[in-house]
From TrEMBL:
Annotated protein name in UniProt: Nodulation-signaling pathway 1 protein
A Pfam family per the record: GRAS
InterPro entries, alphabetized: TF_GRAS
Residue ranges, annotated region (SAW): 3-84
Region (Disordered): 1-21
GO cellular component terms, A-Z: nucleus
Entry's localization field: Nucleus
Amino acid sequence: MMEGEAAKALTNQREMNEGKEKWCERMKEAGFAGEVFGEDAIDGGRALLRKYDNNWEMKVEEENSTTVGLWWKGQPVSFCSLWKLDKQSSSSSTLTAR
C-alpha cells in the first residue's frame, strides 16, 4: 500500500519524463531517504544484462550513489533508485497507509 500512496504523491499532476535530479528531489520532499544499492544487487543486475544483451550496461555514477543508470550502446536510457521512508523527516506524515 505504501508504494501506491508514494506513487500518487509523486505523480499527481507532474511530468513522468523528468530527469533523475528532479525525481530524487521530489522523493526527498515526499519524506523518503535514498539508500545505496548493495554490491550483490549491482552484480546481479549486471549479470542479467550480460546474459540477455551485451549492448546494455549499468553504471553507478558515483560512490554511495542512490541511483544506478541503465545505458544502451553508451547512451543513458533510464535509471533505478532505492528509497525508504525517512523516519527523521516530518514530511513523511503526508503519506498515509491504508
